[in-house]
Each structure stands twice: as C-alpha cells, then as structure tokens.
Amino acid sequence: MRKLFGGKVNRKNGALRRLASRLGGSGRVLLLAAVTLGALLAAGKLSFALAVNMDGDLLGYVSSREELDGIVDRVEHSVSDALGRAWSPEELTTYVALRAGSDTEDAVADRLLASVPELRELQVVYVDGEAVCAFEEREQAAEALKSLASRYVREDTEKIRFLEEVVVASAVVDARLLADAEEALAAAVTVETRGSVTVTKQIPCAVEEISDSRLYAAEGYVRRVGQDGEESVKYGTVYQNGRLTRCVERDRVHQEPVDEVVIVGTRVHRSTGSYIWPVESAWLSSFFGPRTGFGSSDHQGVDIASDAGTPIMASDGGVVLFAEDYFGYGLLVKIQHENGDVTYYAHCSAILVSEGESVKQGETIALMGCTGVASGNHCHFEFHPGGGEAADPMDYLPACPYPILEE
Question: Which residues in 144-174 are b (16+ Cβ under 10 Å) and which e?
C-alpha cells in the first residue's frame, strides 16, 4: 500500500502544509472549507440547483428551467380549471444555489398552488363528478347531506336515496364554493323517497224499513244494526324533491256493508194525554159524589146542561167502546183512551159514532138530550181512570169554564 500510494500522499500533504503555512490562520479556515466543499461535491452530497422565488418567498428548488416550466404549466392548468378562468402565477425568479438533496416536482407544485389566495383545500361535494359546493370539514358536508334528505321525509317514507352520484372528497378548489353551499347542494341533488299510503273509503249501509201497524211511531226499533262497508286501497308512492312522480296500486281490500233493518210503527196516536170539557157552552148542574133529589144518590160523574142538540165532543182521542142505549144512561157513548182511561157521555139525543171507530179530541160524537133517567137536557160525563172505578172528572179536567147551577 505504501509502495502504491505513499509517494503521492506525501507529496500532496507536503504541498498543502506549505500552502497553509503561507496563508496564516484565516487562510487555513478558508482552505479547510474549500477542501470540505470539494469533498461533498465529489461525494454527491451537495449539488447545484435552481432556487425558485415568487415575490421574495422561496417556493423550492428545481434541477433545471425545463423542469420549472413543466411545473408551472401543470399548475396553471389545474388552477384555471378550479377557478373557471385563465390564471398565471406572478413573476418567478430563479438563481443557482447549492443544496443538499432536491425537492420533488409535486412539492414545488403544491407550494405554488398554496400561493393562490382564491384556492383552499376543502371538503368538496361532487354531484355526478361535478364540484357543486364545499365545506370546511367533512362532518359539515355529511350533516348538510343528511339535512337535505330529511327535508323530504314523509310519514309514509320507507326508503330514501339521491338519484345522482354524490361523493365528498378533499381537494384544492375555488374558495367561492363555500358560499351558499347548502342551497347549491339542494339545487344540484334530487332526493327520491319511496313509501306507501292506504286510502280508505266508507261504503254506507242501506236502511230497510219494515212497517208494523201494531206499534206507534215512537215505538219503532232496530231489528238489525247495520254496518258500513269499507274499501281500502294501498298505493306505492315515489316522490322526487317532495313532488309525487308515481303512484301504483299494490293491494285492495273490499268489505261489503251489512244493511240495517228498522221496524217502523205506523199506528196513529189518537189520544193527547190531556182532557177537555166535552161541551163548549153550558153550565154545571150536578157534581160527583153523594147527592139528594132526582136520580142516583151516589152520582158517578158531573152533569153539564145546555140546550137539546148541543154538540158533545170527545174529551180526548181514542176508540169508541160502546155506542147505544144503556138502561138509565139512555143513549151512551164510551171512549177508551190510549192510556187506558175510559170516559162516558150519557143521556144523548143522538149518537154520531159507531163502536170501534177512532175519534180525535174535540170531535163531535153525539148530541145533547135527556134519554134514560134524566130530568132535563144535559150530558152526564163520567171518568174511569185506567178503565176502573169512576173518579171525579174535575180532578182530570182543567178549571171549569161553566157557570155552576146551585142545587
């Protein structure tokens, strides 16, 4: 080794020692630096590169002007696409510099992009591949999409989706995409909801009426309760942004109604339940109860006197039970009322109704006379509550409208 390299080494070291002794202290430092720089260049640990500045700020280092032109072309194209208009960077300056290692093209391009004030790295919402809006955070974008979908949720919603392809991705874009982001999103996206709705229609039941002459109208009743029918139709629905676009029948259920049957009484009410005096113009000649003189000692009614032929009226409506001559009563009419009461009209000169005939309150049933055991023209009027024993008619009639003849 000494034989092969020793002479050269000794000669080189000797020359350096002689040069260093001539330069003095500072010279020795400079010489050492030059030696070190040469060694680094020789070892490839330092290299010459173009330092790229913009407005006094260092963007990075490139190996050549051609590499810088390629980076600028790429960034110009990207920024112009993002801004929607032509864009060029401010004037770039370069100078040669020594540095350890080198920047990648992407690193320089990223710094150049970062220098564009209109551009920011945001969470961009792409609809069918087109950037429509942006948000600061990904969570904000997700919440905006969720809010947009919920805007169109209905009570019958079963499924919901976006018709367009919606993607959220991080990108450097025009910061103006932040403005009115939710409105821009709503304008670009179609929210489709699918569900079902059931429409029910009532089918009214018919009412069948059956007449029954044995019953009064108020005594009618429902023999069979009716039930309305029902028709239910289930539809599948499709809405787009809240507007119905499709409605298809899925199922139909039909239930027939059950008709109602009502028994209707047709029997006419003849009685009013209250009573009137049977003669319009007369006088009261005898009261109910014990008496002396002509006739029975236990008087079963009241005597209403007037001229022969004066009309006698039914005190209330009912059915004629009896209409003929009856011993001391003479010509007698009996009327049974609907509540069971029976009224008598005796000593008539003529009977104008027949047994079984229906009469109304106030209807003329006979003419006043003095047939039977009677001392003058009058109407002997009896009142039998419930058809039983006679009771004082004045307990069932309104106040007496006649003059009273003192016995």
Answer: bbeebbeebeeeebeebeeebebebeeebbb
What pLDDT score does 3 carry?
Answer: 28
Tell me if 353 is assigned to some domain: yes
DSSP code string of 277-335? -S-SS-EEEE-SEE--SSS-SEE-EEEEE--TT-EEE-SS-EEEEEEEE-GGG-EEEEE
Predicted pLDDT of residue 13: 47
Average pLDDT over residues 85-113: 76
Burial class (CB in 10 A: 0-12, 13-18, 19+), 285: buried
> For residue range 178-209, what is the model confidence (pLDDT) as tens digits?
999 999 999 999 999 999 999 999 999 999 99
Answer yes or no: do 364 and 332 share one domain. yes
Task: Kindly list the distances between the CA atom of residue 352 and the CA atoms of 28, 141, 217, 345, in Å, as whole numbers in the listed order.
Answer: 168, 103, 29, 12
Neighbours of 399 (CB within 10 A): 6
Report the domain count for the chain: 4
Query: Distance (Å, rounded) from C-alpha 241 to C-alpha 162?
Result: 10
- Give me the residue label for tokens 């009532």: 202
**pLDDT at 137 > cutoff 80:** yes
| C-alpha separations of 215 from 116, 127, 207, 212, 355 in Å | 101, 80, 19, 6, 22
Band of pLDDT at residue 101, cut at 50, 70 and 90:
low
Q: Which domain holds residue 294?
A: 283-395
* Nearest CA-CA partner of 381 in 276, 264, 232: 276
* pLDDT, tens digit, 9 for 90 and up, residues 200-249: 999 999 999 999 988 887 888 999 999 999 999 999 999 999 999 999 99
304: in domain: yes
